[in-house]
Design brief:
By secondary structure, the chain is an alpha+beta fold. The chain contains 10 helices and 6 strands, in the order αβββαβαββααααααα. A 6-stranded mixed β-sheet has the order 1-4-3-2-6-5. β2 and β3 form a beta hairpin.
């Protein structure tokens, strides 16, 4: 009985462990097995060097999916076709990872989108140089679908040359359009331009330019000598030394803390003065009033001294003497 219970517990442990392992695998990467996907393919008749498996696919900048396969049409669809008749396209398959509704809509409308001008192009992602596949609306007349003679395994979406490829193609066509007559005319024009430049250089007054250049160099030499004399003057040297001494003293005062103590002393004195003025405000007003009265008395005394100088010493003018009246 005990042994059977042990087997039951062991079985339950194994079942629980396998369940946990399955859930972990599902959370780590198994969700994509149940996610709705849609795969389409496009063909390129040029090199797509730099486009790697897993490269992002964007529709007007919006993430759409990733590149799932990069193949050749010769190995995929043209195995039984003679080599001289093979088209040698590059087959790029894209896996779209969107919601179930969006995947269903794209699967239904891929043919309509191709007719409206949706084309796949290789683009460079910023300054990193990584290539990705970009989908956008282009002129369907300018970029018609590539011709092929097989049945695609997945819905087909046409492609368009990349911008860099178009630039190179235009440059090649331009070089090919140049003929010997154009090259001869271009060389003749260059020879004429060189001759005109030589004539203009010969017409320049080289002697005058040389004289002006020598005068300018002489002035610069004179200014340099005056500057050297100024820098070597003893007064300038003494001024620099004095500034160095003053700076050293100020630094010493600041480092010793004397400056901080001085500032603190000024703050304390100001605070005590404020307290003194606040406590003796009435007395100070009385003193100021007495000083005003004293000043007025001094002004009166000064005017009296001006009029009667002797009065300041004697005490005032003498009394008037009355003469006796004469009898008749």
């Amino acid at each position: 009985m005990e042994e059977s219970r042990r087997y039951v517990r062991l079985g339950l442990f194994v079942v629980v462990g396998l369940s946990v392992l399955a859930v972990g695998l599902f959370l780590l990467g198994g969700q994509k097995w149940f996610r709705p996907t849609f795969t389409f393919e496009t063909y390129f008749n040029q090199s797509i060097a730099g486009l790697e498996l897993g490269a992002p696919v964007r529709f007007r900048g919006v993430p759409l999916g990733h590149v799932s396969e990069i193949l050749t049409s010769a190995a995929t669809y043209e195995r039984d076709v003679p080599i001289d008749r093979r088209r040698e396209y590059i087959v790029v398959r894209v896996e779209v990872n969107l919601s179930r509704r969006e995947v269903a809509e794209m699967r239904e409308n891929v043919v309509t989108l191709a007719k409206k001008g949706v084309r796949a192009q290789t683009q460079l992602a910023g300054i990193t140089g990584q290539q990705y596949l970009a989908l956008d609306f282009l002129d369907p007349q300018k970029y018609p679908p590539l011709e092929y003679s097989w049945k695609p395994d997945y819905p087909y979406l046409p492609s368009a040359p990349s911008s860099a490829g178009e630039i190179i193609a235009h440059a090649q066509r331009f070089l090919a359009s140049l003929n010997e007559a154009d090259i001869g005319a271009l060389g003749k024009n260059l020879n004429t331009l060189v001759g005109d430049l030589d004539t203009k250089i010969g017409e320049l007054q080289v002697a005058d330019l040389s004289t002006k250049a020598r005068d300018m160099l002489g002035k610069l030499d004179s200014a340099s000598e005056r500057l050297n004399l100024l820098l070597g003057h003893p007064a300038l040297k003494q001024t620099v030394e004095n500034l160095a001494v003053i700076t050293a003293r100020l630094r010493k005062v600041s480092d010793d803390g004397n400056l901080d103590r001085m500032v603190k002393g000024i703050d304390d004195a100001t605070e005590r003065l404020d307290v003194l003025l606040g406590d003796n405000q009435y007395d100070i007003r009385s003193i100021v009033e007495d000083l005003r009265v004293t000043t007025a008395n001094l002004r009166v005394l000064s005017e009296a001294i001006k009029r009667y100088p002797a009065g300041a010493l004697i005490g005032g003018p003498p009394d008037k003497v009355r003469l006796p009246e004469s009898s008749r």
